[in-house]
Amino acid sequence: MIALKLAYRNLVGAGLRTWLNVGVLSFIYVLIIWHQGLFNGMYPQTSRFVIREEIAGGQYWHKNYDPFDPLAVEDSHGIIPSRLRALVRENRAAPILIRQGTIYPQGRIQPVLLKGIDPRQTVLDIPIAKLLTDSDTLPIMAGYLMAQKNGFEVGDVLTIRWRDTNGTYDAADGEIVEIMHTRVPTIDMGQLWIPLDRLQQMALLPDEATLIVAGRDIQEPLNLPEWPFKGQDFLLKDITDMIKAKRVGGFFLYAILLFLALLAVFDTQVLAVFRRRKEIGTLMALGMVRSGVIAVFTIEGALHGILAVGMAALYGIPILLFSAYKGIPIPSSAEGYGLAFPVRLFPVYSAWLVGGTILIIMLAVTIVSYLPSRKITGMKPTEVLR
Amino acid sequence: MKFIITFFTVLLLTASALYAENYPSGKAILDAIDRNMTSENRIIVSKMVIHGRRGTRTIRSKTWSEGETEAFTEYLSPAREKGIKMLKSGDMLWTYSPNTDRTIRISGHMLRQSVMGSDLSYEDMMEDPELSRHYKAAVTGKETIDGRPCWIVELTATTPAIAYQSRKLWTDRERNVPLKQELFAKSGKLLKRLELKDVAQIEGRWFPKRMIFKDMLKKGKGTEFIIENIRFDQEIPRHIFSKAALRK
Amino acid sequence: MKNAMLLFSIKGLLRDRSRSLFPILMVSAGAFLCVCLHSSMKGTVTDMVDSAARFDTGHVKIMTRVYNELADQMPNDLALMGVGNLLEKLKRKHPDMIWTPRIKFGGLLDIPDENGLTRTQGPVFGIGVDMSARHSPDTKILNLEKALVRGRMPGHKTEILISDSFARKLDLKIGETATLLGSTMYGATTTYNFKVAGTVRFGMTPLDRSTMIADIDDVRMALDMADSAGEIMGYTNDMLYDDKRMTGIADAFNRDFADPDDEFEPVMQSLGEQGMMRDLLRLVNVMVAIVVSIFVFAMSVVLWNAGLMNGIRRYGEIGVRLAMGESKGGLYRSMIVESVCIGIAGSALGTAAGLAVSYWLQQNGIDFSSMMQKSAILRSSVWRAQVTSVSYYIGFLPGVFASVIGTMFAGIGIYRRQTSQLFRELEV
Q: What is the distance between the alpha carbons of residues B189 and A161, in angstroms, rounded to a whole number?
């Protein structure tokens, strides 16, 4: 106890330098917690959009379906299997039919994917309510990027041409009834959403679909040989990979910063041991064992870490809370091309994150404080007190 | 007032109904067209005039065709396109170019691309059905086009696997040449328009020497075809419609 | 007099290794870290807009007005013509920038069997890049050599690179022929034989799916686009994007070509004017500024400590010098001069080392994708640095100022010492 008290008094007595060291350490606490918090938030927040708007509990793909092979699209469709149809009726699965079509923005041919979805489904949370209409005009929902690139606005009428399953041309004027403000480019770019029953009629493919989105309450995916199930892990792989890469990138940064802070503490300790040789001698002369003296100095150094926690809490908690509350704005064209990003990213700080960060830094600081104190072992009270 | 309108409407309806009885049957017209236009085979040398946004280009080609499904085209000029060949056989399409010495099947999204920059897509090229086999026809009126009296014939597909569900023809009453043709989507939307001009007698048939093909959904002036030379029912060796012929 | 003092200090420093070597090493380590951190952070910023800049937006990009409106469709019929002239003009007006033409195109890549018939084929997205001459910088801009997975860089006419996964999908081997079926600038069907020299992977999913990269001259031949290009990209020589400057250049350019009736007039856009790039830049720059300033601050504390330590280590020496009659002011000044020397020398050394490492990182990068299990390699898994003009002086901030300030604080002690006590302290 006396060691702790002594250590504290010495430390605070050292004044400005202590506070600078503590300041640096506290920055590092805040930075690590904030930065990792951002990544903590990134996965759930990014995947939340994708889960909510695109993949829900996973997708059953028609066996020919390959989202990266535009040649395969026309051949990837099949009758919705009856076991899935039961789920669809209960609104626990949503079939999507994908067909190729052509639009003519500014009189030029442009290929698009037509995606049919039931406007009454609730498996995916996309604003399709307006597709539910009695009007003869084909209602179309376009994504934000698609609309921006082609200058679509709600109320615009565009001509779509497609071929039915026999290859017969068909064309219709559709009206843009909704522009979906989505952050998921894979449900936006190069595609138009229309009611499923209309697309099935248009393509002459009643009751058929290209993929079937399973509801989020899915327990055990059905084993359908014609319709292999693609789980969330598979569908979210791009996002997990990106975050992983970013996290690793973060560690380099922390390592360098922490190294610096530790260097500062180390220097301080060396300095303290050198300057206070007399004090050390006195303590030893007064009967304190060497290990006790080392403990005093080590604790003194380690206290930097504890004080830094306090200081970090002082200014860090408001900053961290503020950014968790306000979020970090992410521009829509943010890197990663083709990956979904939320408008604002909200850091998430877990007890694990905060506790772990403190623990690791404390441990490092303690070790760094201990190393110079070992010198004390070699000191002779008679010599230093001369 | 109301009475007068009703009166005239009734009068008009009766008149057109009466008139309809004087129309020839659609079938007869289609047969007549087919008799005039279709042949066992044909060899055409033609010019395609393509109006682009940056000027006009002319491409000359020679085409051998037989029936609905076989056609072989060789491009003659300009220099860059000279020697390029195209073969349609059944529902397949190949292209050959001498500078690469490659025969390539055109598939997938390429089929929807335009042929040589024209309003015609490869899909359209694949599409040249004998009308009477795939459509039932009804004459619905008459009109004069380019000074020629025409029947208006509306065609509806009888076979499902056909590109255009319905067509509308303005066919020359005497010469049995459709001077104007409109191709419709199933929804009834006008997709393509084909105008046949400069009709002249060739080997006993009436045939247009100039055609204008227009994709109605695309911007632009359309593509013009000028027939320089056409011969019917020639001796065409079978092997010309084979992939081997492409490389010759 | 001043010179003499400086000379004396330097002599002293050189002769007494404990006074020079250790502090200089300390300072240079600090400066080194600062430079490395700054350039690697800059590397991440640039990296965020960089891939877009390199592949898509340029620092500035020139297209015709109509091409710009439909750029997504790669409308080569609306491409720029007379590119040679335009490039000449641009190079004359902005000799400090890199100007390079590109052609983006779509088509079908067809792989022949032994009889020259289609073996496999797939839709392809192509980029025509100026890779012909040694003076062409575009190969570097696209990092083609680094992206190479198999094979080698194209060296001869008609040689191309294609996405590695695409090559696997088409079962295409190095050295095999791949025929492009596409359309010319005038819409005519065209085929062109290429030879696969190598395969590439960029770490960006859309590009790694089905891309081919060919020399622009071949593409011009293939697509009948003599002296034309879909886009002309402009880059600063140091590959650093300066939004204000680039937007200025674009505005000036557009004033020169201001005929509103000519839809084929070239228009120039800066990277910031394309998409939401400007917002992204702003955001990332703020983050980097925060991290770098924390770092510089921390480094300063460390070096200040070092300065203090240095002062304390020489406690005895200073006592002796005071005792020998040196004035306190003179002693203080000489210590500061020393620390300035050390600071400058150390910073210079550290900056040099830091720049060397940063340049290496800029050129090569560290790919830590292997640390992640069997995942698609993202470009961001390659850690690259970016040396900027700031990299050259950022190390001097903590290196000189912090260590000098540390010495100044430590030196204050000199004034506190009393001559009368010196001998007692020194126990002479």
A: 9
Tokens representing C220 are 């011009």
B52 to chain C, any CB pair closer than 8 A? The answer is yes
Buried b (16+ CB within 10 A) or exposed e, C196-210: bbbbbbbbbbebbbb
Identity of the residue in C181, C193, C224 whose CB atom sits nearest the CB atom of B106: C181
Domain residue spans in chain A?
2-52+238-385, 58-230
Which residues have C-beta within 8 Å of that of residue C300, sequence separation ≥ 6? C397, C398, C401, C402, C405
pLDDT at C374: 34
Residues of chain A with pLDDT under 70: 1-3, 14-15, 70, 249, 331-342, 384-386
CATH 3.10.180.10 is held by the domain B25-66+107-236: no
Which residues is B232 bridged to in the sheet?
B42
Q: Phi and psi (nearest 5°) for A152?
A: -75, 145
Q: How many domains does chain C have?
A: 2
Flag whether residue B227 sits within 8 Å of chain A, measured between CB atoms: no
Domain boundary among C240, C272, C304: C240
Question: Is A145 within 8 Å of C276 (Cβ atoms)?
Answer: no
Amino acid at B45: V
The residues that bridge with C111 in the sheet, in sequence order, are C120
Interface test with A, best of C55, C124, C302, C303 (most A CBs within 10 A): C302
* Domain shared by C207 and C71, yes or no: yes
Which pairing describes strands A328-329 and A78-79: parallel, antiparallel, or unpaired?
A: unpaired
Q: How far is CA C212 from the centre of its chain?
A: 25
Quick: pLDDT tens for A248-283.
Answer: 767 777 887 788 788 888 877 887 787 777 788 888
pLDDT band at C368 (very low <50, low <70, confident <90, very high): low
Which pLDDT score is estimated for C366? 67
Q: Is C399 helix (H, G, I), strand (E, B) or coil?
A: helix
For tokens 């007190």, what's the residue?
A385
